Structure prediction request, 253 residues.
Amino acid sequence: MDNKQEILRLLRSVADGTTAPEDALLELKESPFEDLGYAKVDFHRSVRQGAAEVIYGAGKTPEQIAGIVSAMGERGCRNILITRVSQEAADRVAESVPLEYHLLAKLAVAFPAERKQRGNIVVATGGTSDMPVAEEAALTAEAMGNRVTRLYDVGVAGLHRLLSNLDVLMRARCVIAVAGMEGALASVVGGLVDCPVIAVPTSVGYGASFGGLSALLSMLNSCASGCSVVNIDNGFGAGYLASRINQMEGLED
Prediction:
């Protein structure tokens, strides 16, 4: 049982008498998670949070990833995200389950399925070197059913590139601003749009950028209101949060 609709189906079947309350209780008891020994797969994540559990691929063997994904697929989960996974590991997992792999973002989608794309999230980068993190954010949001527009290499070193896309930015429900170096892009975007801005500092930059710490501190100190910050290189976290903002109840496509 992987989503709210399945629980509602079960409850309605109890209400109309096709399922005994005792059988429904047993199904609910069995559904929260499955213990695989090396992982406890959380099948109620989508009920609580609106999206299935995401697999962090780094540090897991291909066999472990395949086992987790297979267990989720058997419960009907689709568009299962696997983050920070290598090409080699993804190729081995793909031998046992349907898988789409995106090399730039080091992200895979298991049991890929079509989803209605809602709203509009804009993912913007300061430079081309920020694209791996930006793609992790964009692909995460797309897998969760969001329409995504990419604006890459529009940093403050050539501000006219960003300003030529004001119409795109101002139509967005949420903007993800991905930048390294001094991380100025988030503040500039935050001063232009009327929607939430999620700032993603990247580890791109020379020595004094301290592996993204400089961009992180700049973004945390942004004077633009409505700008929040995720961790360094955390494209997944930004894409997930943007999806929640974009799909808030009451917003129209």
